[in-house]
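Exercise 7. Given the components listed, write out the predicted structure of the assembled complex. Treat all entries as one system.
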Amino acid sequence: MAVKNKPGDRTGTKTKVPARGRSRRPFVIDVHAHVRIEGVIDLVRKYISESKHDLRSWNDTAVLARMAKDAKNPKSKHTNPHVRVADMDKMGVDMQIVSMGMPGTCSWTNGRTARAMTRACNDGMAAFVATYPDRFAGIGAVLLQEVGPAIKELEYAVGTLGLKGVTALTNVRGEDLGEKKYWPFWQRAAELGAPVFLHPLGFTQPDRMQKFLLFNTIGQPLEEALAMSSLIHEGVLERFPKLQIHMAHGGGYLPYYSGRSDSAYERDTETRKNIKHNISYYMRRFWYDTVIFDRRMTEYLVEKVVANRVMMGSDYPWRQWDAVGMISRSRRLSKAAKEQVLWKTAARLFRLSV
Ligand SMILES: [Zn+2]
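Answer.
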């Protein structure tokens, strides 16, 4: 893979996006879309028996076997770029920022195996994006259980491969992301201007979430609220003002229940230990996507954190729904706000020349 730019050289990572021609509809960028890298799945299946980590039901060998089978299907929406582009055309999406949920799937691994998995993910992502460079931009991945190698992989993904940022899991084997030992990673991401996409997989204490997909529907928004609360309360956002964090799924529960956190900030000194402002203030320091499937909640999120922090997302190919129409047909969002959400905010964050 050719060296495209050095770490920190933001100008070198600009991606040229094709002109919109005569189309009257607005340009649309989908910031939450997943691909599957076959090499990563193969490595996970090879090494998973080494794991002492308690694998949850959503990451067990049967799930992995299904993933591997799908990856070999020539028409898989997860792996075939041509099938994907045809779907994007149907959905009215001009460009996807693609990522892989690899940090969740590989959270149990260490050392050389972990490095091989992240490298397979990042090289695979760069190769996938190269199939349609005008339709895809890629996000790499890091595993934060070993901070030094995670920083090296971030530099490789962004600096060498020209990917637009990296994905990380919302916790590190149950530890929260605001803990001091992770600060060198946040510092380097801020220095590089590399957005970090925080995406959950299930919940770390899922005992009461075993049925009805509750690990996903209830557990993941809780994970997101905890990850944001940790980064805010431990002072990470205060310490690294240039850090760019993209929270999946509208930031989980926190933006919709922030009154409780703000009230505690006023009342209890414990909550003010490391920060100078209330939680709603720091909420405007994150970026969010609209994978929340509810127009009123999306409109509320835009009011709460401003449209230049909210970006259209679909969760393709897990869901194929009218993610664009939810924004474009809103009666509450202004034309300017819709443009921000549909593409302008993403173009700025991911340095796309639109
Ligand atoms: Zn997702």
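Discussion: Confidence is low (pLDDT under 50) at residues 1-12. Residues 32, 34, 199, 248, 315 surround zinc ion (CB under 6 Å).
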